[in-house]
Design goal:
Number of helices: 1
Mean pLDDT: 86
Low-confidence stretches: 1-34, 134-139
CATH class of the largest domain: Mainly Beta
Shape: globular
Number of strands: 26
Distance between the termini: 21 Å
CATH topology of the largest domain: Jelly Rolls
Number of domains: 2
């Protein structure tokens, strides 16, 4: 299918249409098939602009949408209507509201925004993590990917490359292989996560992580039953040999996902109301695709939820207030040596989680 991307330059009467290359080779089958056209119509002046944005869905019906783009200039969004719009650096995320998230094939959704600054119109639009001009991430593993699935587990006790780890003391938390709930196949890893420091439990795998690598891309699917609590919890831990073997931890706080560095308790995003608002909660009672990348060369990190990059969980090396200025208070060059999936509560917070389709690679794997 040939796609077009319509975007206006920053003048009310000019519209730029960029067609997809006609000679492009056929893409591999995509796990996320959503593609789109975006019309960006703006009225600009010397210090600011308004924009009317229309998203046309050219693929399967959408039950909710998140449109992302990068401003090429100094534009900063100051207000918006008919969508929830947030900005981190030059990256902008517009999320549908309850009443305009459903868009049938060929249907449209519109919203508007106002901002300051100048620059050309954006052209790198993506809906639900898929570029409007190309197919989405493919389901086959990326080159060099290591599979951490659970179909080869013979009993309810994690075995082989997986083993149960209780880092502090063995309490009420459990890690088992479940044959009743799975994302694909018939088996998944089930974590019964109990509240309280003594109940930490994980399924650990030190073979899935290449500790000689400098970049790690991790993808897994997770399903859980209880919304993230206000208290700090960890669901994924990775031992960092370059940081005193302390953990790089991914979990939640104040009801939203966050990264935490065990060595100095720095968080990403910062736990201000504005910082938390730039993260996202983890949906309950549904399988969610979680991806993250960690770069050991420059320390940068990025996190995607169902293919959409989360602004508050992105560390780009440039301190940004409410996001990563605390994280960048010292040089951080991680060297990861294992992957642990489980539940770690430092007080309040219990949950039941299932993990499946775990992969690690040197390049982004996709959902």
């Amino acid at each position: 299918m040939r796609l077009t991307l319509a975007a206006a330059v920053l003048a009310a009467s000019t519209v730029l249409t960029v067609p997809a290359p006609a000679s492009a080779a056929p893409a591999a089958p995509a796990a996320a098939a959503a593609t789109c056209d975006v019309a960006w119509k703006t009225n600009a002046w010397s210090t600011g602009f308004t924009a009317d944005v229309t998203l046309t869905n050219t693929a399967a019906p959408l039950s909710g949408w998140t449109l992302t783009w990068t401003f090429p200039g100094t534009q900063q969004v100051t207000s918006a209507w008919n969508a929830t719009v947030t900005q981190a650096g030059r990256t902008v995320t517009a999320a549908s509201l309850a009443w305009n998230g459903t868009v049938p094939t060929g249907g449209t959704a519109s919203f508007g925004l106002q901002g300051t600054g100048t620059g050309a119109a954006p052209t790198d639009f993506a809906v639900n993590g898929v570029s409007c001009g190309e197919d989405g991430p493919t389901t086959p593993p990326a080159p060099g990917a290591t599979d951490g699935g659970f179909e080869d587990q013979a009993t309810s006790v994690p075995s082989g490359d997986w083993s149960v780890s209780t880092p502090d003391c063995s309490g009420a938390g459990t890690a088992t292989i479940d044959t009743t709930v799975a994302h694909t196949g018939t088996k998944s890893l089930r974590i019964n996560g109990a509240a309280g420091y003594c109940n930490h439990v994980f399924a650990a795998n030190d073979a899935i992580i290449d500790d000689a690598a400098t970049v790690w891309h991790v993808r897994y699917y997770v399903r859980h039953t209880t919304a993230l609590p206000a208290a700090h919890v960890t669901a994924v831990a990775l031992r960092d040999a370059a940081d005193g073997s302390k953990d790089l931890r991914f979990g939640g706080q104040n009801g939203a996902l966050q990264w935490n560095r065990a060595s100095d308790d720095a968080t990403l995003p910062e736990q201000s109301p504005a910082g938390v608002a730039l993260s996202r909660p983890l949906p309950v009672n549904t399988w969610t695709c979680v991806e993250f990348s960690v770069n050991g060369t420059d320390g940068t990190m990025e996190t995607w939820l169902d293919g959409v990059s989360v602004p508050g969980l992105r560390q780009d090396g440039v301190p940004t207030h409410d996001i990563d200025s605390q994280w960048l208070n010292r040089t951080y060059r991680p060297r990861l040596t294992d992957l642990r999936l489980g539940w770690e509560s430092y007080g309040d917070g219990a949950d039941t989680l299932w993990y499946d389709d775990v992969r690690v690679a040197a390049a982004r794997i996709g959902c």
